[in-house]
Every structure is written in C-alpha cells, then in structure tokens.
Amino acid sequence: MGILYAIINLGCGTLFIAMTLPMAYRKVPMNIWYGARIRQAYLSDEAWYDINEYAARRMIRWSLLLVALGVACLLIPFERFGLVLGLFAPLILTLVALLSAAIVPLMQIIRYADARYPDADAQSVHRPGIGYSPFPEDWRTLIFSILSILGLGLIPAFIIALLVHLTGRSHAAW
Fold first, then answer.
1. What angle do CA 65, 70, 71 make, to 5 degrees?
2. Is the Cβ–Cβ distance between 53 and 27 less than 8 Å?
3. pTM to 2 decimals?
4. Which of 15, 30, 62, 77 is the most buried (most CB within 10 A)?
5. What's the Rg (C-alpha) of the chain?
6. Is 76 in contact with 2 (CB distance < 8 Å)?
7. Residue 89 or 127, more confident
C-alpha cells in the first residue's frame, strides 16, 4: 500500500511544481482560469504578476512536502505495522499533506496580498468573467483549491486501485 501513497504524493507534488513554474517566471497573463485568483491580483498587471510569483514560490515549497512524503512512503514499510496502522497511517499523512499544500499557501498568499495591496477594496477591480457568488472571493478560491487538490490526489488513487482490481494483483504486491 505504501507504493500507492508514494505514487500519489510524488505525482501530485511533481504536478503542482510543474504547474506553478510558469507563474514563478511571470509567464501567465491575467485570466480567470490559471493563477492566484484573488481580488488584489486583478488590480493591475503588475499586481497579477507579483501575487502569482509569490503564490508560485509558496506552492512549490509546500509541494516539496508532498514529494518528501512520497519518498517516505517508499522507504517506510507501513505494511509491517499491521493492517490498521499500515493502511491508515499513510492515508492520513497523504490527506493532511494534500490539504496543507492547498490551504496553507492560500492563506499565506491572501495575507501577502492584503499587506501589499491594502486598498484593493476601495478600488474598482475589473475581474474578467467572474460573476456574483454567495461566497466572498477569497473563500470561493479556498474552496476551489481544496476541491482541486483533493481531486488531483484522489483521481490517481482511484485509477491505480481500478488497475489493481482489473489485473487481479493482490494489494500485497503494491
């Protein structure tokens, strides 16, 4: 089972790092789909690139946690700890790491943007394509980020579990 969690963590960590590199190098223009989509980022192009570069650096740091956890899942023989601890310890560590990789950087990004651009509420902010939402913008971003991280982490797990089931290999082989 450790190899499954290792693949999930290594895959997600590597994917998150690869996805944030264009933001770190200021290659992503202002849009509604890709980047740190918070109120302050839409003040100007300078704010967009500044906040997205900061966001990318934070996401890369937290994605390294996922990569390190993936390596740990390869090296630690969780199966030797018994069924309950061997199955649930890496699962809980993986979920905590995935949620941490989503929530903590987003909170840091929001704090950074609030400190750097404190008058964003007073200014007229044009946000292309963003309509009315019952949630404040930062909460909407937080919820979307959490769902995205969980989706990116759980989809590979379901695919691998399905492949294991279809090929008839026992879980002990993993």
1. 100
2. no
3. 0.69
4. 62
5. 19
6. yes
7. 89
